[in-house]
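Outer membrane protein, Marinoscillum furvescens DSM 4134. Tokens?
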Amino acid sequence: MTNPDSGETSPGALDNHTIQLKMRNLIFVMLALVCLGLQAQSPEVLTLDACISTALERNIEVQMAKNNAQIARSNKVRAMMSFMPNLQAQWNYNLLFGTFWDNVAARQVTQQRSSNPNVSSSVGLFQGMSRINDIKRSTYAEQAATQGIESTKLNAKTNVLSAFLATALDKENIKISEERIALLEQQLEREVKRESVGVGNMETVYNFRSQVANERLTLTNLRNQYRSDLLRLVQLLRGDVGKEYVIEDVAVSEEQLSVGMASFQEVLSESFAYAPAVKSAEAARMASIHEYKSSRANVLPSVNLYGELGSRYSSQGAANPNNDLIPEKAPYFDQMNWNQYEFISLSVNVPIFSRYQNSNVIQNAKLNMLNAELAEEQARQQFTNAVQQVYLDLVASQENYRTAVENLEALEQSFDFVKKRYETGNTDFYTYMESLNNKNRAELQLANARLSIVFRKKILDLYKGE
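Tokens:
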């Protein structure tokens, strides 16, 4: 309050003003926190392109396929390097006890400390063409692994498309069910008013209440199905299942629905030109052929060249090449200079009896080759079946769409007519519900056909590598 004599504000008024300011600030902070909380809790919108991109980044099978390709490349380098000679250095220091001949000191001794440092190298001159076949095998194995990456990516994309389609169809079904409930509730409200003024009857009211209750149960089931399909989609993305998600509405243009279709043979031919799974199986078959050829080289002779450069030391002494004396305590490095040697060896190895190990390896390689041929045939058949199924679904969806458009147009006109007759009392409840059910089924068929055309076309484009 203000003192009338002095014109000053009383302390009590200042306290009230301060409290009001604090309350305003507190309310503002609380509103800001609520807004931030609502923003943080808003569901994440999933778009089709983002889902495919995320699935490829997080898919474990894709990552494993990439690792397998890296292993195949490493094996190819190893096979190519097998033509190169190896090179190794060795140093040792030995303590020997007992009676034996010392080659360095050129006499019999009872104990010795010795060393034989050396550098050696060996190279295979002929290995029965096994190394050439090993290079070819590893080259085809690398091609199979590389195509395996593309095949795994294709599977991940088609799985995401199928899950997204199922979720989008659920969303359309929910939308139609909600519109149906709104219409039935309007009719229920109308019948309640008519009954209250004595021009209606309770039977119709009960019928509409029953229909509304049934439709709400149907809506609940549709929403549960939507959550289930959405969960499957999120799991494919390896997303956080604790968050809320919604899928983006799929826009379908008339151009997408009216795209012409090539013949199945043309589509299949284009698809096989890409077909990473088939190419991977074909490359794996070629790799198995060269693995079989490489295994047969085990029964052929091999030629190897070996060379060694080194020196020797003995605690019993060594011969001095300058005076042919053998001092017993010749220093280590002096002996290294005196006892240098070069050694070269050419060897031919002929396998005679390997306890059936070589024949077992050859037999296993032959069976692996036969299995690879069957795997390629199976891959071709599975890919053909997949393309056939998607192509048939696309053609059926286009036919269903054309039929559904005409059917829905006729059923909408029929429902409008029946609705007016029902509202004027010229038809009964059951005729009205039958007409409504027919219209809703046509709406579902049309929505299903529209989305199926778009998504089946996308899957078919993926099979063709587009």
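The longest helix spans residues 130-196.
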